[in-house]
Amino acid sequence: MAHPQASFILKSQLIAGEASDHRGPGRADRKQSSTSCDSRVVTDLEPVDLELLAGTAARIDPLMQGVLVSGDVKQIRGFVLEAAWNCMERPYFEHLRGVGGLYRAWMEIDDILDGWPVDYGADTDDLVMREFRLAAREWLDMPRTETGFRDYVHRWERRVAEDTWPAPGGAHWRQRLASPGDRDDSRQL
Asked: What pTM value is reported for the model?
């Protein structure tokens, strides 16, 4: 378990929009296992605790509303990072099935701002704002039911797993890989 002070510092850096050095196994693991089943991924057989969902929504809804009204990509990033951080706090991460999938999906969008796995250049801010706003709008429109939550998580896990965001120059970053040793090859991380 991380030291509380270290967690606070990381959270402060993320919310402030400071560059993250999070290019290690955590980022690669999110990319490679974004649809794998673990104890926190929603399956059709696991019930969703609606009381915990209501608590999560009460904390995340104002942040997602901020995403929709802000015109500043750094502020929008801060809102989403705070929402993702809420997913990792107790009791939600420990007991609300699917909340880990929310964190991974939202962090995959955030990775675009860091230029990972590719740099989108001048299109980066527009791409991130579009995806964050779509995630926020769908979150706020989501029925606060077991099915509504499950569908939202599944949809966003699929969306980031497909990683269909266009690469600069029109070719998807996976199509540009010349060899398994290419610097953009996530298998090498």
From this structure: 0.68
